[in-house]
Design a protein that fits this description.
By secondary structure, this protein is α+β, with helices and mostly antiparallel strands. The chain has five domains: about 140 residues, no CATH class; about 55 residues, no CATH class; about 120 residues, no CATH class; about 200 residues, Hypothetical protein af1432; about 120 residues, Isoleucyl-tRNA Synthetase, Domain 1. Helix content is about 45%, strand content about 15%. It contains 26 helices and 18 strands. A hairpin with a 5-residue loop joins β16 and β17. It is flat and about 100 Å long. The chain starts with a strand and ends in a 10-residue tail after the last helix.
Length: about 700
């Protein structure tokens, strides 16, 4: 068994590209080995800013051999009337001479076909790797790719070397102007330049001892955390670790050196969020806090080089942070002299979306929309309405503050902080901080009801406005983050369990727009946006439930997301019961009869003639007790009880009568059961 190492050496790749590239790189090679039947043991992918590395251990030197049957042309095509092979058969045989063993005929669903049995495989693994490597390297997906020089190839950043070793032998192939070799490059400062690797099993040791590179990203992460936790004990603090930032820092360094920096305690007058943003966003550094959670005047950056004089590096970090904090303190003090009223006026000069007015217009819509949502959710909480309206009105004011102008990632957060400073209600302040949550599929939700209400109002307003002027996402672009807005609505309503009518809120949001020139009618925009949210909702549910169950329940309606989830959960549980198949058969049989029929005549017990139809009507009478019930598990458990009367009805009653009135009444009787369960799911989507 062999060891294979493939290293792609390049200029520094953005850290955000590395996790996805590593996953894809490993998956692509696993698929190659699987498809070509090459057994292997451990397969690891390592990333640093300058290299993407694959290491495969216990790799078979030769692919497994297999006997396979290759189906050729139909017999009637393979031979002419005299039984002589045609050109079709001759061409098939020429294409399958490699590994050919025997020619025979085989019966298939489409008739009698000519086949060959052949033995395939047995190629050296090096040959397969040689063929696959260039395609995989150039096929790696990155958010952005670069071309360099006169080359037509593209990669995340210019590639400078490729190492490909199978044990002690180079696997030769070319990628653009580059040819694979056994040469790797060390760290820019701590390495020894170009280094020859004699054997694939020696690669990791050479990285560590000669190249000055900590190859394994998990090791770099553990080292950074351990060293950071160790050095802050000097100041009786603890590091404010932030997972996504830590992952980014790991992708920025090959030779991590953790530093403890200081800043002037006077800057502690700044809000915690401002201090951490200055460190995290601009310095890629971590804050330090005391045991009680208050920030200390220290920070932890991570360098990519061990300087001869570490103090010089530390002072360099401190000078840059000092400048950022000095700016922040200036804006913090100046903003407090202004207040919300002047900012609200300035919002009328800030465009929201071209064609949808200004940010001032948006806040004047969000105020009544947030109040409307609060009324729909909590009609008994009258005290919540003015707070919701106030939160909507102040929601975007901080966009024109000095602090957000300098630190744009603090929008909303600074609004909440300034609301506290200016004496606004704490509920309003918290809502302002939470209005942009959730910011993605895995990010936190608003923690307060008012924050969730404001978040919903903002997203409903943006979606219906953009669809009204046809600013709709495409496969390649979503400049107004409408997919994220739709997912945010879904997550808030699903996780809060709020039964809020999507159609009703979108219609209300639409009505609050004034002075806009719409590119589609109000009805069409509403239909389009609901369809769009439905698509995102279906994606959100994928993996949680089978696709056919999702489709069945969504086709019955998704205006209330918690109601949809309740129906879906009940249906999924019902599919696992022994009563599921016969129960669905009942509904499918009825659906087939009612298909394309318009049931516009109300059911009348007076028109019943046969005992079987009377028995069915009596059985269905129980449904009148549950017309508004949302106890879906109970309703589905009730469904099997109708099987006997439905079977008797179909056995003894002719649905189609010479009397059209009787026929219509029997259709209406069957429709009672069909429409009742049709509000849970559309049975035609289910497969049994």
């Amino acid at each position: 068994m062999s060891t294979f190492v493939l290293e792609i050496g390049s200029e520094e790749i953005p850290a955000r590209f590395l996790p996805g590239a590593a996953t894809m790189f490993g998956d692509m090679w696993r698929e190659v080995f699987k498809q070509t039947h090459i057994p292997f043991g451990a397969l690891d992918v390592f990333t640093t800013p300058r290299r993407l590395v694959l290491e495969v251990r216990d790799l078979a030197e030769i692919q497994e051999e297999q006997d396979v049957v290759v189906v050729g042309p139909a017999k009637r095509v393979a031979y002419d009337a005299q039984g002589t092979p045609t050109k079709a058969l001759e061409g098939f045989l020429r294409a399958n001479t490699d590994g050919y063993q025997e020619l025979f005929e085989q019966e298939t669903e489409k008739g009698l076909y000519v086949c060959v049995r052949k033995r395939v495989g047995g190629k050296p693994s090096a040959t397969i790797i040689q063929q696959a490597a260039p395609q995989i390297i150039l096929g790696l997906p990155f958010a952005k790719k670069m071309r360099w020089g006169a080359n037509q190839i593209a990669f995340a950043r210019p590639i400078h070397w490729i190492l490909a070793l199978l044990d002690d032998a180079v696997v030769p192939f070319t990628v653009g102007p580059l040819t694979s070799d056994r040469i790797t490059m060390g760290h820019r400062v701590h390495g020894k330049g170009a280094i020859s690797v004699p054997h694939a099993t020696m690669y990791r040791t050479i990285m560590d001892e000669d190249c000055g590179v900590v190859l394994d990203q998990a090791e770099r992460k553990a080292y950074i955390q351990d060293e950071g936790d160790r050095i802050v004990k000097k100041v009786d603090g603890r590091v404010v670790w932030k997972e996504d930032l830590l992952e980014e820092v790991v992708g920025l360094v090959e030779h991590p050196v953790v530093v403890l920096g200081d800043f002037d305690p006077k800057y502690l007058e700044l809000p915690r969020e401002v201090l951490l943003t200055s460190m995290e966003k601009h310095q890629k550094s971590f804050g330090v806090e005391a045991e009680n959670g208050t920030l200390l005047p220290h920070f932890v950056p991570v360098a990519n080089v061990l300087a001869k004089d570490p103090l010089v590096v530390q002072k360099g970090w401190e000078r840059v942070l000092h400048a950022r904090l000095e700016d922040a303190r200036f804006f913090w003090r100046e903003d407090q002299k202004v207040g919300f009223a002047p900012w609200q006026e300035k919002l009328d000069g800030v465009i929201f979306v071209a064609g949808l007015g200004t940010m001032g217009d948006k806040t004047r819509r969000l105020a009544p929309l947030a109040s409307f949502i609060a009324t729909e959710l909590f009609p008994e909480k009258k005290e919540l309405l003015p707070l919701a309206e106030r939160a909507g009105l102040l929601s975007k004011a901080d966009l024109v503050s000095g602090m957000v102008g300098e630190f744009d990632t603090l929008q909303g957060i600074m609004g909440g902080i300034y609301a506290e400073v200016f004496g606004e209600d704490p509920m309003v302040a918290n809502a302002l901080k939470e209005q942009y949550l959730p910011a993605g599929p895995e990010t936190a939700l608003p923690k307060t009801e008012l924050g969730a209400i404001l978040s919903l109002a903002d997203k409903f307003d943006t979606l219906i406005g953009c669809f009204g002027i046809k600013k709709i996402p495409t496969g390649a672009a979503d400049p107004f983050a409408l997919r994220r807005a739709a997912l945010g609505i879904i997550r808030v309503l699903a996780e809060y369990g709020w039964s809020l009518s999507l159609a009703k809120v979108f219609a209300k949001a639409q009505s609050l727009y004034t002075g806009c020139t719409w590119k589609v009618s109000a009805e069409k925009a509403l239909a389009m946006v609901l369809d769009f949210v439905g698509g995102r909702l279906s994606n959100y549910l994928q993996g949680q439930y089978p696709t056919i169950e999702i489709e069945a329940c969504m086709r019955a309606g998704f205006d209330s997301i918690p109601d949809l989830l309740a129906r879906l959960h009940a249906l999924h549980a019902f599919t696992e019961s022994v009563a599921y198949v016969p129960s669905v058969q009942i509904l499918k049989r009825i659906a087939n009869i009612l298909q394309k029929k318009t049931i516009d005549t109300p059911f009348s017990a007076a028109l019943l003639q046969e005992d079987a139809e009377k028995d069915l009507a009596n059985a269905l009478a129980v449904l009148r007790e549950y017309t508004t019930s949302t106890d879906y598990p109970m309703l589905l458990a009730l469904l099997p009880t109708f099987r006997a009367p439905v079977d008797a009805f179909f056995e003894k009653v002719m649905v189609i009568s010479e009397d059209e009135q009787i026929t219509a009444n029997r259709m209406a009787l069957l429709n009672i059961l069909h429409s009742f369960y049709g509000r849970i799911c559309q049975v035609s989507c289910l497969q049994i």
